Automatic annotation (TrEMBL):
GO molecular function list: hydrolase activity
Protein's recorded name: Esterase
Keywords tagged on the record: Hydrolase
Organism: Enterobacter agglomerans
Length: 77
């Protein structure tokens, strides 16, 4: 896509698969997975304890609260 914008006279045909010429961050969920693993490894049983553990790894409180909806009686559902 960048080439078609820079030198359109050199392009006869073009098939665009992804129109955004950006480098996508493919590891953006690593903190979430690390938070879930940390809660499991810590063996906590309450949501408040799980939240404390996750706050050390996950910055967004909304994400933590969303994840905690799936944490019941010390287990992930």
């Amino acid at each position: 896509m960048t080439m078609s914008a820079l030198v359109p006279e050199r392009i006869e045909r073009l098939v665009m698969i992804d129109i955004a010429p950006v480098d996508y961050q493919t590891r953006r969920h690593d903190q979430i997975f690390a938070g879930i693993r940390a809660v499991t490894d810590a063996g906590v049983s309450s949501r408040s304890e799980a939240a404390k553990v996750m706050r050390t790894l996950i910055e967004e409180e909304g994400v933590i609260q969303f994840l905690l909806k799936s944490f019941q009686e010390g287990e992930w559902r």
